[in-house]
Amino acid sequence: MHSKTIRLFRPTTTYIIWWTATALTFLVFDILFCCVTSFHAFHNYTSTYFTILAGASIFTLPAAYLKRQGWQFGVLIALDILFIANLMYCRTYFVAIPLDSYCIADNLCGFVCSVTDAFRFYDLILPLIAATAYLLTRKKKQTRPGGLLQPALSLMSLGLVFATMYPAGGVYKKLNIMATSVNSVSAITPAYSVFGSMAYDYMTRCNCLTENDSNKMTDWLSEHNKLTSGYHSPLEPRRRNIVVILCESLESWPIGLSLEGREITPFINSLIKDSTTFYIPDVLTQTRGGRSIDAQLLMLAGQTPTATGVFAMKYSGNEYNTLPKEMRRHGAATYLISPDEPSTWNQKAIAQSFGIDSIYMNQSFDHNLPNAVNMTDGYLTDKSLLEQATEKMKSGEIWPENQYAFILIVTHSGHNPFKLDEDLKTISLTDCYPDVLKDYLTAAHFTDNSLRSVISYIKSRPDYDNTSIIITGDHEGLAVYRKCLSEYYSYVSPNQYTPLIILNTPTEIGETQIGGDNPLIIGQLDIYSTLLDIAGLYNSAEWKGMGRSAFDPERPNMSVSPLGYAKQKEPCDSSAIEHQRESFIIGDLLLIHRLNPMRLLRESEINQ
Fold first, then answer.
1. Secondary structure of the chain: what % helix, strand, coil (to 5)?
2. How far is C-alpha 563 from the geometric centre of its chain's CA atoms?
């Protein structure tokens, strides 16, 4: 009897090899993921180890019940592909791939260079483990392990994983606690695997609006209204044109930087010296999985992006309160100028939802002009885009003279991996730099040089006195390279800051606010409220955004990242920091449940 029981649980050599290989696959993935984020999962969550056991037990089912080793090898290779894809994604976004994003992988077709740049040769350790296991078992005689071994291991290890969730109240509550914690949000994937992350995304998206969530949103919005109610903009309402130039991956630290006797951004440097220019170098990046399109939500609608996935792909039909809509209500024409395809991250649909009427995208421009296209990525160059846009403005096709207008211009040449054709480069750095740093600085110089044509033209227009030009970055650019580069090169910022440069700032804002060293730190969320201010619409606009105007003297001098990390110039009240942290939770709920924050707040006031 005893010997029969032992046989039921006896492993075979083949099964041990495959089980060990699968466990190593989960372990190596966790280590590589934590190298990008942090090792918090290994230090604080026993579920990390139990998940490795569970993964190894579940994903060796073919080795336990099928005779041919090729099936187990195929399962492990498929798992490797999934893990490598998530590692590549993590190196840019610091989280696993959201569940919704697997369905929109075709959007990556225009960003092949960016995708391949996120790959590392040491990622091949994962398929190498699978190949080694296959070679070790290929010539071995296949025998099945004990009949109860595999299900017993699977149930036991899964039970241990779920046991770590029990004290928190179950799977969703445990993962939700981690997702809303500054230290634990990036630990979800190693602690509960990619599949745990997918499960949380699914449960979050399937949740109905609860009374608790509804109260949470209205309470936060009411509190935010009280915080901003004391500020009355000094600008009187008038027809003021707003031109926003959203520069791809433009960070603040190259501005003012000189290397080898040459300025990296000579044109922007000259603009900042102007007495009517308002410059904030420390604008904290607050984009999430949508990156560039998230920046448009933050800056033009004053809302935080969804926690997982790309808001533009799922929520383009939501009702948004935006700067273009507010200006349009006062008679403005609205334009988008972009080198992207309309389908890229659903940009055309989002532009229309934001109230932009005239859309000029990829096919609106001539790609056959000399040096019009960067052959490395196939995109229209910043120089060609801006020069062609300028010609359309001169002809009156876009923004005829003396027309009241909002114009959004989106550039692309600074996109990761920052590769330009040799004949496009406008600066040559000869010292020994890492390729990514050299390429980034070269791209920044090219974008800086490309801005000359359009800005010089706008300044020459007869309606320039009633126009403000805003130059900013859509998000930080260095991603996973930042830590290493900032440690070895003192001029590279360790912080994810983009610049906010406002040309021709209204004098009513106050002379003390314009020019010089500005000690402010704001977030991209604050740009919407600031632009409302510049446009002279802050006082009349019902929706003032989830941020606060940079000109509001009562605004706390700090900002918070989507992961909850606070950046501040001096100590701030903890309640102000927590209020900003909660804005990301509120913004996520608003998008998921397709709610208009202004309408929600108005209805709650009526009900009270």
1. 55, 10, 35
2. 11
Encode pLDDT of 404-440 as tens digits: 999 999 999 998 889 999 999 999 998 999 999 999 9
Dihedral angle sign, alpha carbons of residues 559, 563, 564, 565? negative
Concatenating the DSSP letter of every residue in 519-531 gives: ---EETHHHHHHH
* Cα distances (Å, whole numbers) of residue 134 to 63, 72, 82, 531: 11, 9, 19, 60
Angle at 522 between CA 184 and CA 323, to 5 degrees: 105
**pTM of the predicted model as reported, rounded to 2 decimal places:** 0.83
What is the rounded distance in angstroms from the CA atom of residue 3 to the CA atom of residue 143? Answer: 18
Q: Which token pair is 145? A: 């392990």
CB atoms near residue 228 (< 10 Å): 19
Determine the Cα–Cα distance for residues 47 and 41; give it in Å rounded to an integer: 8
- Other C-beta atoms lying within 10 Å of the C-beta of residue 153: 22
Domains and CATH numbers, the chain: 2-206 (no CATH), 236-607 (3.40.720.10)
From the list 305, 254, 245, 173, the residue with the least C-alpha distance to 501 is: 245
Q: How far apart are CA 438 and CA 285, in angstroms?
A: 22
